[in-house]
Amino acid sequence: MKYPKIYLALDNCFAIKRWVEPKLWLKITKELGFHYSEASFDNEIDGLFSPEEYMDDWFASIDKLGKEYGVKVANFFTGYQTYRTAGLTHPDERMVRHLLDQWLKPMIKRIKKANAGMGFYFHAIPDNVLQDPALYWETYNKLVARLGELTAYADELGGVNLCVEQMYAPHQPPWTIQGTVDLLRDCYQYNQKPMYTTVDVGHVIGQKKFVRPTVEQIIDSLENANKKKARPSIWLGADQTREIWINAVASGRNSSDTAQDISESMDKFSYMFSVDPGDQDPYAWLEALACYSPIIHMQQTDGITAPHAAFTSETNRNGIITGPELLRAIAVSYEAEEQPFMPRKVNDLYLNFEIFGSNTEYKYDIIDKLKETVEYWRQFVPEDGIALDELLARLR
What we know:
Largest sheet: 8 strands, parallel, barrel
Helix content: 40-55%
Strand content: 5-15%
Strand order of the largest sheet: 1-2-3-4-5-6-7-8
Shape: globular
Oligomer: single chain
Number of helices: 15
């Protein structure tokens, strides 16, 4: 069993609209004490609105300046622009093909030349699809095929690690641990090419809203319903399941019989529910999937919100992400047995700090909170490229 090497990296999303040229954000990255960077496509390198010649120059500059500053852009990631689209699960095939052929594939080609990895979240399931199980699974299979097309393309170029980020709501799969495992496994079985994931330690805030209720909880909700304003107090998933609940309250039907009808209806929409308490625990995600997550997105969180906060003395007081716990959780994933039809466990893990700056923040405060972040994490990863077992040994 081989433990991975661990690297700290700074996502340049901190620099959006402030330090937009590579010569500026790379310099700041170096001055902060990072030797690796993740480049967000939001920071002036979008595949559709950036001219080709500009992108040629931009990629040449990060290579030249990276060597000058001693900062390697190790990974690239999509951002807010692409997060807002149905993308690879868009109902119109023309949109899908445009994004595949004009955005994703050209970027993968450039990233291969830059000797880097790539993560993205580039799809969402429209509500009408969620409400129709047959259409949902048809759409899911199309997503697998489109991701398979990308992994095959990356393989033809000589190999680029591609990662689909995990999210936290039913219309943004994968959003549960098992759902993520299933997606990676389905992608691998599609063409025997690896698709990886990106675990974001803050993306565990929504799953608790979508936990499947027990029959007892359904009965309780029916018995305590306000008939004048019949609205379920629990998550029931699909509209048709919710209608059964509303009609039962209005007609005064037997709650135990109705609860069974509701439960059977929910069975048809299993993809709309979380059934594993671990889905709400960032460490459970890491224990299950860190070895398949070459990019791990780092932010401090209280487990209630995902503010993409820095690791400062203030945020760490209520934050649930700590260095020792995170490293130990990663180790669990590597110590587990190999799983069938999954990609190979990765040898290098980048802890990429995805820290946002508010539009109203002073730029000096942004720099200060990033300084605190790297100071905190260098306690546990004093140098980049140290093997995880050695880092763990230093904790004892």
